[in-house]
Each structure stands twice: as C-alpha cells, then as structure tokens.
Amino acid sequence: MRGGIEARPDNTLLTDRAAKYLEAGPADVVDLIGYICNLPAAPRIVAEHMANAMFAGRTEFGRDTSGKWLLVADAATTSAQHFDASVSMPHVDYPRSAGRAPVDAARKRRTKSAIPPHPPQPLKAVSWVVVDVETTGGRPPDDRITEIAAVVVKNGQIAEVFETLVNPERPIPRFVSQLTNISWEMVKDAPKFSHIAANIMRALEGNVFVAHNAAFDWKFVTHEVSRATGNRLVGQQLCTVKLARCLLPHLARRSLDYLADYYGVEIRGRHRAGGDAIATAHCLIRMLDDAEDRGCSTWEDLDLLLGRRTSKKKKRRRYSALPGPVTRDTTA
C-alpha cells in the first residue's frame, strides 16, 4: 500500500541536515557528506561508507541511477531508487568539488528527480487498520496504554482483529477504571507494550492508520512504538470523526455512539479497545461506500474531499483591543 504505515529510525541532527540539503535536488555523495558533516572534498570511499552507515534502514533516502543521493517521495513504490545497503551502487567518477552552493541558492535551480508521478490509487485497493487504545490518561509519554486493538480492513471486509490488555507499568486512576472497566488487577500480569510491539507492527505496516479521533490514538501508538523499538511511525492517517463531518453534516454529533447508531452498528464493549475498534471499522466501511457514491473513487479524491471541508471552516473572529462604541445601557 503506497503511503501505508511503516517504521523508520528516529531522525538525527545529521539526517535532518541531509534532508534539508536534498530538498534542492539529487546530490553527489562527496558534496552531501561535505555539507552535513563539514568535511569538504572528503575521499569518495570515506564519503560512501559514511552515507551508507547514516542512511541504512532509512527509506526516505535513496539513490538515482547515476548514484546520486535524493529524497524518495514514496520509497514503497520507487524500488528503482530505493536504498538497499546489500546492493552496491555502480562506481561513477564524479568531479570533486570544493563544495556545493548554499541550499537556498540551489533550491532556485532545483531540477526534477527521476521519480515518476504515481497514478491515482483506487480506494478499493487501499487496506486500512482501525486502531483504538485505552490509556491511563491523555498525555503521553507520562500516560500509557492499558489496552489496544488493531482491526485490519481489506476489500470492504474485516480481515483480521488483534486486541490485548497491556501492562502500563503505572497505576490506573480510579476515574479511568470507572470509564473503561479496566483495573490494575486486570493488567498487572498482561504483557508490556515492548512484548507486543512486533505484533502491533505486523498489523500496522502497509495499511492506512484509521481511528475515531485519530490524533489521540496515533499520539499514543507512536510514543509506545518509539519507546519499545527506537523507531518512529510514518504514513497516511484517516480520522473517522473528520470523515463523518464531511459525509454526514446533518448528524447532531459525530461521536462513535451517534455514528454507530446512524449506520445500525452494534458496539459490543463500549470504551474497550476491541469493541470500539470493531465498531469503528464497520462505520468506516459504510462511510467509504458513501464517499464512493459521492464520486470519491481514489485516495486522492478522498483527500480532496477532506481538504475541501477544511477550507470551508469559518475563521474565528478576532476582536480588537481598542474601545468600541457603546450601543446599549450598561449601567442598568
């Protein structure tokens, strides 16, 4: 799945500098290492070893057919330029230079990379993973996950369900236990997130991340994956709350209860990860059908639909701090 979830090593100062430099276009390895490591005109063999070590496992960096390094817009489908540490690139005798023009100047004469544009992606070809988490609170990394569910949706059907309690390694506040019915007694012998991280990643990888109020679940899952594996999650996300606002503006509210009631979906286990994730998955399937009825046949169409809704939001009125005219009696 193009744009599906994948795990990448955390950014470093050097990879951030490399990304900024490569925004101007493909670069020779000697120039690239010279800029990011302050080593102008480094021996080519040294620059090659440094670049290979720095970019190992980072699919956002790749090389074109001439051997120059570049930013890969979507490494999953540009295998010709996808970096692979096991494959040695052909040696190219580039002229050594004392350095490259400043990045701002280079951007002005940026040339197009050899990566071809991707054709529109049909929604029917997209695979989704609907995630729901229960937590000890709302602020990671201090708060932790107590239960997680991941429901994979393919071809308009639920294909896989993974759910488990998680030992949060800290107490669960009483009011949270009252809401979720998850107590410390239930999770004290449950696996820690680090023990289930591999299973979670198998469910996430290659799929679009979906959740009801996706920002909340994404925030917790990315924090836990980073803590457990040292990697960061990247990829496309879809919030069913935002999608419901676009498709069902007549609903009084877009909570999961209202959405499930509208589509006739039964929630078995409200405020539990499995029950909420499965109900959200069924609502997602119905909303995707509604979106297709409105002419959304590709991911790009759906993205445009969500963008149009965003552009219609009213700007919040900003009041002046200056005194204004008095239009009514304020002394009564």
Care to describe what's here?
- The chain is an alpha/beta fold.
- It folds into 2 domains: 11-108, no CATH class; 123-310, Nucleotidyltransferase, domain 5 (2-Layer Sandwich).
- The protein is 38% helix and 14% strand.
- α1 packs across α2 (29-36), α7 crosses α8 and α9 (240-247) packs parallel to α11 (273-293).
- The chain starts with 5 loop residues before the first strand and ends in a 21-residue tail after the last helix.
Give the N-to-C terminal Cα separation.
67 Å
How much is the radius of gyration in Å? Answer: 25 Å
pLDDT below 50 for ≥5 consecutive residues: which ranges?
74-116, 309-315, 319-332
Secondary structure tally, helices = 12
Can you say what the CATH homologous superfamily of the largest domain is?
Answer: Ribonuclease H-like superfamily/Ribonuclease H
CATH topology of the largest domain: Nucleotidyltransferase, domain 5
Biggest sheet strand order reads 6-5-4-7-9
Helix content: 25-40%
